[in-house]
Design a protein that fits this description.
alpha/beta; 4 domains; 5-stranded mixed sheet; 18 helices; globular; binds uracil
Length: about 450
């Protein structure tokens, strides 16, 4: 047995140096014990020696490095050993990471995915409170991450809050930024963080700007923030006041030109997207590569809502770029609607599929999944506030109207959304792609373009 010590739970560089030596010396993963820090009580099967000579090197595919960097931040005690095994197997089988049926690949990917979600959660849910120290204002936040992500996430906060002095306290580690330099301290407890009224006005502004009184659903708003984080969030305290002011704000919203609040809208959209990246509202996030959020100008007059991302969209993280998206682009162009000026999104933000061999076959989202995801589309619409929203197909119509709509009966005319906005319904472009008979496809495509032309005329 070899015992390999790395410095910290998130010490990717230490693990990499160690594993390099082990692989070159052909030490099998089951002959290695990995330990962290001084190691007392921290032994686990597998291993790495931080003393391995960096000069002895071999190349590793980039996707493995990216995967390992995240997976290593997981809490599973076997992660170092599993990554070592994966690396050894990868050397004989360069395409191993593409094999989604391989149990080891799936396990390590599930570590990396859970870590990515935790990183996003920290970005979305950390809230600073102001305290005064000898040098003036310092902003302090408390956060409880699931994994060892704090160091890996520090650069994000330095970037975002470069001109503030801040500290983020977590149970295992605290990080501090003095405006110039990042430093670390020991873990803290919640009692060490300031309590009381947070002064994070930016967050309050953000929250108020996405709060649409016409869609007051307090329960849903609170449900969306994982319960664990509510207590850290200033905006939950805003809700009663927002409701009280709802009527007044509603009429103000009608008269306020979108351009006046353009800056806030952009910020609100980015913050919402960031939150959606960590969405776990239903089980679909578990197998998808990532959340595929909407795209387009945030002040678009026209919003198109599809069903869910497909295989290509899931990999690229962008809606409507695969075959259905290409047909949609063509039809929009023929209808004289400029795609660059429309906002395109989906009713469901994660790809749902069945694995058949190497292929991932689209699987329709069910009513529970559509309803779990409705919160996101409601927030997107509250930010973009389009003049017209278009449902592409039955799933989108169900999401927007909250009930089953028959496309053939409802297409070709304006409808009213539950919040009063104008909506149209038409077919989904992939319906056209699936029609086997070329004449039928041609005729249906022409009807689709005609719908888009009629919709385009509704826009000022
Ligand atoms: N189909 C959809 O509904 N949305 C996409 O993003 C791609 C295909």
């Amino acid at each position: 047995m070899r015992v390999v010590t790395i410095e910290a739970e998130d010490d990717f560089d230490g693990w990499r140096d160690a594993v390099r030596g082990l692989v070159l010396d052909q030490v099998p993963p089951d002959q290695v014990v990995w330990q962290v820090g001084d190691g007392a009580g921290e032994l686990f099967a597998g291993q790495g020696s931080s003393g391995a000579a960096p000069a002895r090197a071999f190349s590793v595919p980039r996707p493995f490095i990216d995967l390992a960097r995240n997976a290593i931040l997981h809490r599973d005690r076997e992660r170092f050993a599993l990554l070592h095994t994966l690396l050894v197997r990868l050397r004989d089988h360069l395409k191993l990471l593409e094999d989604q049926a391989d149990p080891l690949v799936r396990r390590v990917e599930s570590f990396a995915k859970a870590v990515r979600r935790d990183i996003h959660k920290m970005r979305a849910f950390v809230r600073f409170r102001e305290v005064q120290d000898d040098d003036g204002a310092r902003y302090v936040a408390w956060f409880e991450p699931e994994f060892h992500i704090v160091r890996a996430n520090a650069a994000f906060f330095v970037d975002r809050f470069a001109s503030m002095r801040w500290s983020i306290l977590t149970p295992e580690l605290s990080i501090h930024w003095n405006g110039k330099r990042l430093s670390e301290g020991p873990g803290a407890s919640k009692a060490d963080a300031p309590d009381g009224d947070p002064v994070e006005a930016v967050w309050k502004t953000y929250y108020a700007s996405i709060f649409n009184p016409a869609r007051v659903k307090v329960g849903a708003m609170l449900k969306e923030m994982p319960r664990k984080y509510w207590k850290n969030m200033p905006e939950t305290a805003l809700v009663p006041q927002l409701i009280a002011n709802a009527q007044r704000r509603e009429s103000e919203m009608v008269t306020t030109a979108k351009t006046k609040i353009g800056g806030n809208i952009e910020a609100a959209w980015h913050a919402l997207r960031e939150e959606a990246m960590g969405c776990t509202r239903c089980h679909l996030y578990k197998h998808a590569t990532q959340t595929v959020f909407g795209e387009g100008p945030v002040d678009a007059r026209l919003v198109f809502v599809g069903e869910q991302p497909g295989d290509q969209e899931d990999l690229a993280g962008k809606p409507f770029i695969g075959p259905a998206g290409q047909m949609f682009d063509r039809a929009l162009a023929e209808a004289g609607v400029d795609r660059a000026r429309v906002y395109v999104t989906n009713a469901v933000k994660h790809f749902k599929y069945e694995q058949r061999g190497k292929r991932r076959i689209h699987s329709k989202p069910d009513a529970g999944e559509i309803s779990a995801c409705r919160w996101w589309i409601e927030q997107e619409l509250a930010i973009v506030k389009p003049q017209v929203t278009v449902a592409l197909g039955a799933t989108a119509a169900r999401s927007l109207f909250g009930k089953v709509m028959t496309i053939s009966r409802e297409r070709g005319r304006a409808h009213q959304l539950p919040d009063g906005g104008e909506a149209w319904i038409t077919v989904h472009p992939s319906f056209l792609l699936r029609l086997p008979d070329p004449d039928a496809r041609h005729a249906e495509y022409a009807k689709f373009v005609a719908d888009l032309k009629a919709i385009g005329k509704r826009i000022d």
